[in-house]
Amino acid sequence: MLTGKRLLITGVVTTDSIAWAVAESAQLHNAEVILTSYDRVRDLTQAAAEALPRTPEILTLDATRPEDFAALADQLAGRQIDGALHAIAFAPREALAGDFLSAGDEAIELAFRTSTTSFARLAGVLAECAPANGASLVGLDFDADGRAWPVYNWMGVCKVALQATMRYVARDLGPRGVRANLVAAGPLHTRAAGGIPDFQSLLDAYDAAPLGWDPQDAGPVADAVCFLLSDMGRAVSAEILHVDGGYHALAAPGVSQAVRRAG
Ligand SMILES: NC(=O)c1ccc[n+]([C@@H]2O[C@H](COP(=O)([O-])OP(=O)(O)OC[C@H]3O[C@@H](n4cnc5c(N)ncnc54)[C@H](O)[C@@H]3O)[C@@H](O)[C@H]2O)c1
């Protein structure tokens, strides 16, 4: 599905990262993968990279540093990039849980810059490196409806803004053949998820997903991302694809898997 494609994948920090599952699936579909990482976690990314079927090159990108995006574009100059994954999110704890109204401006601004505007910056890099026949940018969302969860707070706001950012990117880069989409994934056990206080309350809600939901398996999300990165998704842009076991369609939690199994 991805033979001949060179993909830039951000956000690999452990083998639990959604981005790691995407990199693995992409390699298994014959893509060439390039990762990005940054100082604080580079060693972790290196270790995770070595666990992939083929150890990829790792370039530097701290999403809070505009100069890193420019340097990344310079490093990629002359190399065609057919697709990119934006799998970057961070919010200080005060912006993730507790009193929504008392989170400080600095924490909110850092969450927004890291998790939302970086999508547009990455789109700029991809636009510079995209071949004439276009490219595909995919980002990762949670609960595309933007509802208020028991936790998640300002990250929820960042994700809604990410949806709008993705649509503006799709509008502006579409004429150059660059597509932009999001995959709205159900909750998965990753390093970032471990930073969300009471993450269990999000997991509990997904017990009602019609298809069920395995929070340990990022594979279904990775495969959906690979579809959007591939030519099979060539007419899909400005879309949010839910990969959540069907949870998003429920108006009320309904019957849990456990109750259903018990008959
Ligand atoms: N885990 C979930 O339940 C879930 C569900 C839906 C969407 N997502 C989204 O998936 C994406 C990936 O998260 P994950 O769950 O795989 O966790 P993860 O911790 O494996 O990945 C988050 C990544 O963001 C990177 N990052 C943080 N600050 C950065 C910065 N300044 N510059 C560059 N990179 C930075 C981290 O290094 C890490 O690689 C995020 O956008 C997250 O919101 C996660």
Describe the structure in your own words.
There is one protein chain. The protein has 263 residues and is of the alpha/beta class. The chain has one domain (6-262): NAD(P)-binding Rossmann-like Domain (Rossmann fold). It has ten helices and seven strands. The chain has a seven-stranded parallel sheet, sandwiched between helices. The chain starts with 5 loop residues before the first strand and ends with a helix. The relative contact order is 0.15. Nicotinamide-adenine-dinucleotide binds next to helix 1, strand 5 and helix 7.
Short description:
This protein is α/β, with parallel strands linked by helices and 263 residues long.
By oligomeric state, this entry counts as single chain
Mean pLDDT: 95
The CATH homologous superfamily name equals NAD(P)-binding Rossmann-like Domain
The biggest sheet amounts to:
7 strands, parallel
Unreliable stretches covering 5 or more consecutive residues? none
CATH class, anyone? Answer: Alpha Beta
Strand content: 5-15%
The figure for the number of domains is: 1
The shape is globular
Number of strands: 7
Rg from Cα: 18 Å
What are the secondary-structure elements, in order, as H or E?
A: EHEHEHEHHEHEHHHEH
Q: In DSSP terms, counting alpha (H) and pi (I) runs of 4 or more, how many helices?
A: 10
Intertermini distance: 40 Å
CATH-defined topology: Rossmann fold
Helix and strand arrangement:
Layout: E1 6-9, H1 18-28, E2 32-37, H2 42-50, E3 57-60, H3 66-76, E4 83-86, H4 93-96, H5 105-129, E5 135-141, H6 153-173, E6 178-185, H7 191-194, H8 199-205, H9 219-229, E7 239-243, H10 257-262
This protein binds nicotinamide-adenine-dinucleotide (NAD).
